[in-house]
Amino acid sequence: MAIALYAGSFDPITLGHLDIIQQGSKIFEKVLIGVAFNPEKKGFLPVDKKVELIKECTKQFLNVEVYSFDGLTVDFAKKHNATVLLRGLRNASDFEYENQLAEINSKLNPNIKTVFLTSNPENNFISSSAVRELVSHKQTLTAFVPKPVEEYLRKNLD
Ligand code: COA
Question: In this predicted model, what pLDDT tens digit does every residue of 119-147 receive, in sequence order?
């Protein structure tokens, strides 16, 4: 069974991401979550906090590990023996972007394949940017993010 890397900015992790992680954990031997760190982009949450929150939200999945990384996703995958890049698709417009990303990654390392999982329809409306906007309007986030994330955002970003 293959090791899969689910890379992303997770800014913040949402119930949609968690859905993909849960599905992936049942299919793959191991799912590595890679929180991409781009030194040129100031994220909404610091990378270390994102890693901490994702660990908390995924602790029930025994074959899931959480890391941060910079540089290329395919290089991080190779370093950790992951042969699959796991990505989630919510709708047709995700596919356009995701397919392009998959092509680029395949050119960068043909031995690493991208596998798409479709998200549960009840999560299709969720995005990290919607969550960030709702935080700025002090709205409740129960339908969007896992409980530890909601609690952290409520306590720390008032
Ligand atoms: N459920 C909910 N939301 C989802 C989702 C799902 N199943 N799948 C994607 N999203 C949303 C996120 O909420 C986020 O929303 P936003 O744009 O409103 O903030 C958006 O889709 C994408 O976020 P995320 O899934 O965290 O991934 P990403 O597209 O930010 O990650 C990387 C991109 C990190 C994988 C990619 O940039 C990368 O590989 N970077 C490293 C450098 C590299 O290797 N580059 C090579 C290619 S050029």
Answer: 999 999 999 999 999 999 999 999 999 99
The pTM (predicted TM-score) of the whole model is 0.95
Q: Which residues span the domain enclosing 43?
A: 3-156
User: Residue 60: which pLDDT band, with cuts at 50, 70 and 90?
Assistant: very high
Reference 47, options 6, 5, 7, 10; nearest CA is 10
pLDDT exceeds 90 at position 51: yes
44 backbone dihedrals φ, ψ, rounded to 5°? -70, -45
Gap from CA of 158 to ligand 1 centroid (Å): 26
Cα 36 to Cα 8, 21, 39, 144: the distances in Å are: 6, 16, 10, 21
Count structural domains, the chain.
1
Catalytic pick from 25, 50, 87, 128?
128
Nearest CA to ligand 1 atom 17: 129
- Among candidate residues 26, 41, 107, 155, the one labeled active-site is 41
CATH at residue 29: 3.40.50.620
